[in-house]
């Protein structure tokens, strides 16, 4: 147990807590994020402050959002001598990160955190919502990380792969063993770095695009043609027309489509049916 761990409550299984306990891993996450003095870093779930400390050491302002009420006073005590560290008691799922940055006078922010496994998809999907996000370095379960990094057109590709790669450059930072946490999880973890694409490849209406992908992957072991009637609430054009416009083979399975195919299909369906698009 390190000095920063002493006096903290035990991890709570109900919150999916596995506290990062490796200074080396925390240092790699901070280095991947590359915060500079004067920048704002928002941290998801500081836990016992293992990552908060190296983030604050860069000279950046750190606002750390912790859901677990008993941890908050201990964190505030730990970082009482760090004027640039703010511990906020909040559930990150209900926090508007753009608004948090604006309220502190920042035009952009960077995001860091060791995401609880039970919140991974929710938090990752939300990444595409934040218009002020400049970069993110997040730790996730390795299996999820592999799916996110999967190349479109491969068997492992799915909704998260297509959606996140439409809006971010995503890189693997490091793999993290269970012994780097307390208590140790039963699985390996991976740290991913996210850099927003400017301009994004994906549609402006990101939630609509996400819903579109969910429809497309609803029956991923079936041919793509089975999903076409569900696109745009039945307002999609005929498969033959879509195939002519996009060059897509609708006898393929959803994971076989390249990223460009999904973007073309979305635009074709929306233009012909609901309107809008990219």
In angstroms, what is the radius of gyration? 21 Å
DSSP helix fraction? 25-40%
Strand fraction band? Answer: 15-25%
| Shape label | elongated
- Give a short account of the largest sheet: 7 strands, mixed
Spatial order of the strands forming the largest sheet? 4-3-2-5-6-9-7
Blueprint of the fold:
Layout: E1 19-20, H1 23-33, E2 40-44, H2 52-57, E3 61-66, H3 71-78, E4 85-89, H4 97-103, E5 109-114, H5 120-126, E6 133-141, H6 142-149, H7 159-165, E7 168-176, E8 181-182, E9 189-196, H8 206-216, H9 239-246, H10 259-272
Parallel strand pairs: 2-3, 2-5, 3-4, 5-6
Antiparallel strand pairs: 1-8, 6-9, 7-9
Report a brief summary of the structure:
This protein is α/β, with parallel strands linked by helices and 278 residues long.
Describe the structure.
By secondary structure, the chain is α/β, with parallel strands linked by helices. The protein folds into two domains: 13-196, Vaccinia Virus protein VP39 (Rossmann fold, 3-Layer(aba) Sandwich); 206-272, Helicase, Ruva Protein, domain 3. It has ten helices and nine strands. The chain has helices at residues 23-33, 52-57, 71-78, 97-103, 120-126, 142-149, 159-165, 206-216, 239-246, 259-272, and strands spanning 19-20, 40-44, 61-66, 85-89, 109-114, 133-141, 168-176, 181-182, 189-196. It has a seven-stranded mixed sheet with strand order 4-3-2-5-6-9-7, with helices on both faces. A two-stranded antiparallel ribbon has the order 1-8. β2 (40-44), α2 and β3 form a beta-alpha-beta unit. The longest helix is centred in the C-terminal third of the chain and has 14 residues, at 259-272. The radius of gyration is 21 Å and the shape is elongated. The N and C termini lie far apart (52 Å). Residues 274-278 have low confidence and may be disordered.
């Amino acid at each position: 147990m390190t000095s920063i761990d002493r006096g903290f409550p035990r991890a709570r299984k109900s919150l999916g807590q596995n506290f990062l306990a490796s200074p080396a891993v925390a240092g790699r996450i901070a280095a991947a994020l590359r915060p500079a003095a004067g920048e704002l870093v928002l941290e998801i779930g500081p836990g016992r402050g293992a990552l908060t400390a190296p983030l604050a050491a860069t000279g950046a302002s750190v606002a750390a959002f912790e859901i677990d009420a008993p941890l908050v006073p201990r964190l505030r005590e730990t970082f009482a001598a760090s004027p640039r560290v703010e511990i906020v008691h909040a559930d990150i799922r209900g926090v508007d990160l753009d608004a948090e940055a604006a309220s502190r006078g920042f035009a952009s922010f960077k995001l860091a955190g060791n995401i609880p496994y039970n919140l991974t998809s929710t938090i990752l999907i939300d990444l595409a919502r934040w218009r002020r996000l400049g970069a993110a370095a997040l730790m996730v379960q390795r299996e999820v990380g592999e799916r996110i990094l999967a190349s479109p057109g491969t068997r492992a590709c799915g909704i998260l792969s297509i959606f996140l790669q439409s809006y971010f450059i995503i890189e693997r930072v490091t793999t993290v063993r269970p012994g780097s946490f307390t208590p140790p999880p039963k699985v390996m973890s991976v740290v991913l770095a996210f850099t927003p694409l400017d301009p994004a490849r994906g549609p402006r209406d990101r939630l609509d695009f996400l819903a579109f992908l969910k429809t497309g992957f609803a029956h991923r072991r079936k041919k793509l043609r089975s999903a076409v009637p569900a696109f745009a609430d039945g307002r999609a054009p005929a498969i033959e027309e879509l195939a002519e416009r996009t060059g897509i083979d609708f006898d393929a399975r959803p994971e076989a489509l390249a990223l460009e195919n999904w973007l073309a299909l979305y635009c074709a369906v929306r233009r012909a049916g609901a309107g809008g698009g990219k």
